[in-house]
Amino acid sequence: MWETGSPVGQTVAGMSGVSGPWSYQFNLPTSITFDQYGYMYIMDSGNNRIQRWWPGATYGTTVASSTSFYNPRGLIIDPLGNLVLADCSNHRVVSFSGGCGPTTTTTIPTITNPPNEICDAAYWNSTIKIVAGATNTPSSALNRLNTPVDVFFDGNEY
Questions:
Q1: Cα 90 off chain centre by
Q2: Which of 9, 28, 30, 113 could be disulfide-bonded to 130 (CB atoms 3.0-4.6 Å)?
Q3: CATH number assigned to the domain covering 29-130
């Protein structure tokens, strides 16, 4: 965090110069977003997980993880409170339903839907629904994704 006018930043999550899989460490964090309560959600790309940090916390809680992620990057909370991530090297965007429990880890099942679709995952029962993009199928077609690295919502539902 950088205070306005400050010449140095302050570490608010993780440890400077140390990477790893523990709840107080990251391995290639690529994106952050905040919810309405001030909780910070961090895409921990190297550990294939999303960590939630409470304001002032010294460790995070894994709220979503999956071995099916491949180089996940961008992360945002949509207008309905769902966590949405760009799963870059799988060429898809995945959405986890809101209400992520503080101590539960989700493992997403293998995608069996047609290529190049966006996914909507129900957090509580590990189901997944494609809403755009596809796993391992890059393309320049209008209905496909090629290495998405971020997500953004313009206020319209998808």
A1: 13
A2: 113
A3: 2.40.10.500
